[in-house]
Design goal:
heterodimer; A: 111 residues; six-stranded mixed beta sheet; B: 112 residues; mainly beta; seven-stranded mixed beta sheet; four-stranded antiparallel beta sheet; 0% helix
């Protein structure tokens, strides 16, 4: 049969708008989370991280929110720019030093 | 800092041939990770090392895959014999203390 690739969730926004990318993680024991950005033909690039003893962390134009009750992570990008167009992955540290990645979200910023 | 350096960037090989992918981690980092990325399965951890010692190789798909880290500045991932289903992008990443990995640019492997 024909193989089917992953169908990435997509988010399309207008330049200047705020973007919110969501992620559901799997392991309630995970204590460390990271958001990565991957542009076409490149490796994942670290954006921001958060530990489980926090529920919010801010960086430059980005904010990560962690809701441990429902095992949900979100990445907020303020004033989204065309250069923000990429696939965004959340990752959780599940056991030892193993980092497990989510499926990714394709963000497209329209000028 | 040059970041994590992987070579080659692209590799095309025939089925049955041996393939060796190389990685130079960031100097001073004590963890090194090998990931594989495909459309079907996304990013998968294959193996990781701490201080040059393999810690978790449960993600290595088959005995055809092997990884070594002879010293703190070099690691290899070898596939022997290679098969078309091994076609993927292979990433190496390193970190200090297992937080906030830095990824290399990857090796795109095509097995025909």
């Amino acid at each position: 049969g024909e193989s089917v690739g992953l169908h990435l969730p997509t988010l399309s926004v207008q330049e200047g708008d705020n973007s919110i990318i969501n992620c559901a993680y799997s392991n309630s024991a995970s204590d460390y989370f990271i958001w990565y950005k991957q542009e076409s033909g490149k490796g994942p690039q670290f954006i921001i991280d958060i530990r489980s003893n926090m529920d919010k962390r801010q960086g430059q134009r980005v904010t990560v929110l962690l809701n441990k009750t429902v095992k949900h992570l979100s990445l907020q990008i303020a004033a989204t720019q065309p250069g923000d167009s990429a696939v965004y992955f959340c990752a959780e540290k599940t056991s030892g030093s193993r980092l497990t990645f989510g499926e990714g979200t394709q963000l497209t910023v329209n000028p | 800092d040059a970041g994590v350096i992987q070579s080659p960037r692209h590799e095309v090989t025939e089925m049955g041939q041996e393939v060796t992918l190389r990685c130079k981690p960031i100097s001073g980092h004590d963890y090194l990770f090998w990931y594989r990325q495909t459309m079907m399965r996304g990013l998968e951890l294959l193996i990781y090392f701490n201080n040059n010692v393999p810690i978790d190789d449960s993600g290595m798909p088959e005995d055809r895959f092997s990884a070594k880290m002879p010293n703190a500045s070099f690691s290899t991932l070898k596939i022997q014999p290679s098969e078309p289903r091994d076609s993927a992008v292979y990433f190496c990443a390193s970190s200090l203390g297992a937080d906030g990995y830095t990824f290399g640019s990857g090796t795109r492997l095509t097995v025909v």
